[in-house]
Each structure stands twice: as C-alpha cells, then as structure tokens.
Structure prediction request, 179 residues.
Amino acid sequence: MNSRCVRTLCLVLGLLLAAPALPAHAAGDDMKLTLCKNVLSRLLCKKTSEFSYMGKMSDDIFIIAVFYATKNSEFLCMVSNDGQVVVQDRTWRAMRRVFNYEPDSAGKCLTVAFSSPECPHKGPIKVCPPKMDTKEKAKETFWSRPIPAILDEEFRAMRDAAKKQDNATAPAAPAAPEQ
Prediction:
C-alpha cells in the first residue's frame, strides 16, 4: 500500500472512533420508552412509528424526535417511579404535560387513561413487555451467563459428542466362544 492509502485509512479510522455514538437504552427502559412514544402519539395525534428515539438526557429522561408544527421537534419524556409520565417540548418549551399511569395487578403492564380531543383514539394506553418465545428466552439466558460457564458447557458438549462418535465407530468386541 502506498502512503496516501495509509493516511486515508488512518483518517477514516480516526473519524469513526471519534464519532459520538447514540447512547443505547437498557432493556428495562424499552417499556418506558414505548410508553413515552404512545403518550406523545396520543397527545399529538400521530402514529407511534413517526417518533424517533434520539437518546437520553439523563438516566430517566428520554429525548424523542418527531416532525411537529412545521419543523422537527424534540420532546423530553420521563416515566417516574411514582406513577407519572412527564412530557415537555424541548424545541418550543411551551408545552409541559403530566399524566398518571397505573401498573396492572401483576405489575407488568402500565396503563395511562388519557384521551386527546383532536385524536380519534379514545381508549386507555396500555404498554406491556414484549412476549418472548422459547428460542428468544434461551438466547437471552445464554448470553446473560458468564463467558467461562458458556465455554465450559460448550467443551462438555463437544467432549460428550466425541465420546459418542468414538463408541459408534469402535470395532465390536469379539463374541465369547460358546462351550
């Protein structure tokens, strides 16, 4: 490679490493983020698919973007542990709304009883954790274990498979002579 290619490659790698990444939200935040998007959807009478997760302002505050009032707008949304969803328009700062939510009897789903006069959807907003099939659960539990345990399990499985194959290909023992 010539020096020009090396310099270009170094520049590209430097830019990729220096580029800020969007902070990922934790798995436990998925339900809160979904609740925020659904409340904003009802409040602005837009589809939930029109809202984009932009990141987190702090541990409890999500930044959600949507095209609203002739330009892109950002909304801050917080789902507090004391039963409130707080929504504030980050772009205009004029709108701040607080909604109460209730967990269901099992404590898994969250429900907000709210309707907007402009929006045709009138029922309560209910958000539940996604249902996982057995494959997804097995995959999730597999990767949540420590790496040494995974490697040990894989080693044992390979050793057992090798033993079975050795036993299957081993010559049969000669039969004892009859008397």
Remarks:
- The chain is about 35% helix and 25% strand.
- Confidence is low (pLDDT under 50) at residues 5-27.
- The two ends are 80 Å apart (CA to CA).
- Helices lie at 3-18, 30-44, 134-144, 147-169.
